[in-house]
Amino acid sequence: MSQPPESEILAAPADEAAASVAGIDQSAGNFSYDVKYDFDAGTGLNAKTVDYISAVKKEAPWIREFRQNALKVFESKPLPTHWATRDLENINFDKIRYYLASGQKPKRTWDEVPDDIKRTFERLGIPEQERKFLAGVEAQFDSEAAYSNIKEAVSKQGVIFLNSTEALREHPEIFRKWFGKVIPTGDNKFSALNSAVFSGGSFIYVPPGVKVSHPLQAYFRINAENFGQFERTLIIADEGSEVTYMEGCTAPKFSTSTLHSAVVELVALKGAKIQYITVQNWAANVFNLVTKRGLAHEEAEIKWIDCNIGSRLTMKYPGVVLKGRKARGEVLSIALANDGQHQDTGAKMVHAADETTSNIIAKSISIGQGRSTYRGVVHIPRHLKGCKNNTECDALLINSRSRTDTYPAITVRGDRHAVQHEASVSKVSEEQIFYMQQRGLTEGQAMSLSVNGFINDLARQFPMEYSVELKRLIDLEMEGSVG
Amino acid sequence: MATPAPSTTPAASSAVGDFTPEAFAAHLKTQAGAPAWWLERKRRAYARFAELPLPRRTDEAWRFSNIAGVRLDGFVGERAVPKVTQPMQHESPGAEFGGSLFFMANQHGGGVPVGAEAAKRGVIVCTLQEALRRHADLLQAHFMAQPQRLGSEKFAALHEAFLADGAFIYVPRGVELEEPIHVNHLGAPFPGVTFPHTLVIAEENSRVRVAEFFKSPGKPLVPAHFVIGANDLYAGHGAQLSYDGIQDWGRETLSLQLNSTVVRRDARVQSFNLHLGGRQSRHESLSQLQAPGAFSEMLAVTVAQGEQEFDQRTLQVHQAPNTKSDLLYKNALLDKARTIFSGLIIVDPDAQKTDAYQSNRNLMLSDEAEANSLPGLEIQANDVRCTHGATTARIDAEQEFYLKARGIPTALANQLLVFGFFEEVLERLPEEKQREGLRKLIQRKLQK
Fold first, then answer.
1. What CA–CA distance (Å, rounded) separates B391 from A408?
2. B429 close to A (CB below 8 A)
3. What is the greatest pairwise CA distance in chain B?
4. Which of A116, A150, A342, A413 has its CA 20 to 30 A from that of B246?
């Protein structure tokens, strides 16, 4: 394990010329700070590590037990390489730090945030002005929330917005009921890992009938080399409430692999609506193995908007369990895989009540030697009626060495449902590129436009700042992908 | 020869089950006159079979399959079968044929020789045993020469090890046959294992149609059967090969049918499978498009009734540029039936300008039926057109209402709509006689 860098800033971008492309600082995210970690669980994982994390967090005994049990499940489960990529075997679990925290209590006001952490946000390109518009910022700096600010209006609405440690300590009566229920510990190896060592993340409760006026937002970063991040998010939207949550991440670039394994659980009670938006842009050495699932009660609606651009390997299949009558689930997914990247993403829809509907739209772009994979499950068990699913997967291949895969699994029991799945694979139209080049665009610009057109109908559904960011990220990725 | 009794002990469902080394040794004795390479292949196949594990729950190639239903024991080995010399009665699509072969429980039971004119031009329709003696080089080049990629490696090895006889069809360069060649397989009239085998070699620019029929002896003899069949189709440059497989095994049969199709430059293969019988029937179909201009059309129609399970696994491999494949599998599900369709299109890195299509349509006619659909793509070339689609739905409510409003009883209305549903597949077949025969078979099953 190498030490955190001594110098205060290691920001020198590798390629100065690239930094000015399209007026975007490409080196954003390519930096790290020397942070004094007050609590450090060391590398490797065993029962002691788990006890240590639990002790530092001053957790109730039931949480410690939950963690210890999860550790056993994690150890007993094999890697899912019978269907997943063998790249997973390159994760060295003994070399990962499972807990790091600056030891600070989450801050309530901007003034209390340490200067060096503020500088980190500046490098992330979050302008001061924009922050003012954010309803609440729960920015995770390494494991703990370093800054947390809920807009007054939101807390006045009765919304609880805390990190996982605080939430389980201060409001167990609200959060314990659903914690680990949507995604049980044993769901998969990595949800078990997260359950054992989770820290950070957001716990949100929206009271009945409350429509949270602004999107709640959080940024996650990984800062220390070989440092895994295991945030845990639980959002409960009580009857008739509405909330939008946005999550974006960038990470410093390091040479050895880093593991990120989050668990995100959503609970939409009767008639509630939750929209969860992710723009994932981890560094190209990060294993991003995330379990995300929502539980939609009667007439509730859960919508995942999931955009994956970074990481070495992402495996993420946001799901919705449609538990109540007329519940609705939706996954809109965009994946972009460049050289050395594998975006293994998709969606899971489990229909468990009558007249439930689900919609999956997935678009992927493979550039260079990138590989994108769609994996999906649509499950409609016996004795239900009136369930509907629509799935569309479109893949775009930019270069002759790019790769795309589609692996859906659809199970339908009974004759009172309608399910359809369609997928297509194509390349950028040569005619389009030619047309644009005739009008003075470079090939790269033309490709960029064409790719943005391919995802346009999905990107439009993103909040404005995210779709702008997405467009810029695609422009950056497309640079140098042609010729 | 060992005569293991049906057994339910856990030890019995071991890796070899009834197919013990003793049983294999006894089988080899029946092949005593065969060439050394044949026996050697069988020995290697048996070793492979014994070594490979049975399918496990976590095997992706067996996802959703009823693995507990796939057993290697409880079936008595080969017994003496009464010699049957009469060709089997069947409602074959098209009454005339250019030649036929008939097998009962692995044994050749006669047939009709290929027409004199065709024979003169070098067309061969004979048993594998005869081919071993007279056409060993052809057999050696094509017999089970393709890889097993769809999950049944173990069963393919078992087939090769215990295979006693089968059909061998060879059409020389430039020869075009007008009448189809029929191959009939009849199961044994007692519980047993059958290994139907058909090898079709269509040389450059030849044209041939082959229809294969799988049937159990009629009532009251409907014994439990285990069938592991293989049919290999080879279409040389510019050849046109069409194949119909009509599977109507008895309802106690466990059937694994393994198909491999090789399509060479500018060749065209149309395969159509009608799945009606069996308790649990798995059909694996591998199409390899090996040279530019190759085209493979894969069609299937399944009527799943009662508690039947039909498990279809397909793989379209585009290994060369400018190749085309088109798959359409339609299932109608009644009662408590289950179907699994798992299809994959693979486009190799150099196979630019591939045009691949895959479509699975499930028609649900019962609240208890279950359809599983796994339409997959693995694309490694960028200049391609690949699409797939899967739908699962019930009969269109408006169409149903229309028929009901005219006083047509539900059962009959359903039948009409099922025929409408299948017609999209059937109309792709070239001959009206053939379509008519298939419709009759489907209708008979629906009326059961």
1. 12
2. no
3. 69
4. A413
pLDDT at B394: 87
Tokens of B194: 């059958």
pLDDT band, very low/low/confident/very high, at A217 (cuts 50, 70, 90): confident
Peptide bond into B220 cis (omega under 30): yes
Residues B260 and B255: their CA atoms lie apart, in Å, by 16
Query: Which residues of chain B lie closer than 8 angstroms to A364, CB-CB?
Result: none
Residues of A in contact with B349 (CB under 8 A): 400-401
Whether residue B394 lies within 8 A of chain A, CB to CB, comes out as yes
Residues from chain A that touch B391, judged by Cβ atoms under 8 A, are 418-421
ipTM: 0.87
Six token digits for residue B374: 């796994």
Find residue A283's DSSP bridge partners. Answer: none
Q: Which of B368, B381, B386 shows the shortest C-beta gap to A424?
A: B386
Give the model confidence (pLDDT) of B406-416 as tens digits.
999 888 888 88
Identify the helix (H) or strand (E) that includes residue B370: strand B370-379
- Model confidence, pTM: 0.87
For A116-183, the DSSP string reads HHHHHHHHHT--HHHHHH-SEEEEEETTEEEEEEE-HHHHHTT-EEEEHHHHHHH-HHHHTTTTTTSS
Pairing assessment for the beta strands B309-318 and B338-347 based on DSSP bridges: parallel
Q: Which of the four pLDDT bands, split at 50, 70 and 90, describes residue A23?
A: very low
pLDDT of residue B1: 36
pLDDT-above-70 percentage for chain A: 75
Those residues of chain B that have pLDDT short of 70 are 1-14, 75-97, 218-224, 448
Please name the amino acid found at residue A230: F
B379/A395 CB distance under 8 A: yes
Give the C-alpha distances (Å, rounded to integers) separating A177 from A75, A307, B70: 26, 30, 43
How many interchain CB pairs under 8 A, A with B?
A: 133
Please say whether the beta carbons of A247 and A278 come within 8 A. Answer: yes
> CA of B425, closest CA in chain A: separation in Å?
19
C-alpha to C-alpha distance for A479 and B367, rounded to whole angstroms: 53
Phi, psi of B216 (to 5 degrees): -95, 160
Sorted by sequence, the CB contacts under 8 Å of residue A451 that are 6+ apart come out as A365, A396, A398, A428, A474, A478
Rounded Cα distance between A445 and A441, Å, is 6
Q: State how far residue A408 is from chain B, nearest Cα, in angstroms.
A: 5
Give, for B411, the enclosing helix (H) or strand (E). helix B410-426
